[in-house]
Write a sequence for this structure.
């Protein structure tokens, strides 16, 4: 618990990192499945694409952070 409060845990123990990676992987599979099934509607493809971008930004923010939020 103390490690999570101070951002000193390794990347594979970070809930933010694992959550972001999970979002990127699952959204990429959703995009791939829609694309291979012939779905080309931008309104259907944009939510997983936006989720990938958002998770990528969260992952970047987690990796470059030097101090916990609120410190």
């Amino acid at each position: 618990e103390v490690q999570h409060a101070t951002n000193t845990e390794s990347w594979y123990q970070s809930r933010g990192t694992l959550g972001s990676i999970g979002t990127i992987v699952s959204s990429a599979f959703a995009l791939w499945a829609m694309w291979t099934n012939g779905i080309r509607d931008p309104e259907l493809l944009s939510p997983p694409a936006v989720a990938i971008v958002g998770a990528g930004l969260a992952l970047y923010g987690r990796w470059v952070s030097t101090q916990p939020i609120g410190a």
Summary: Residues 42-64 form the longest helix (23 residues).
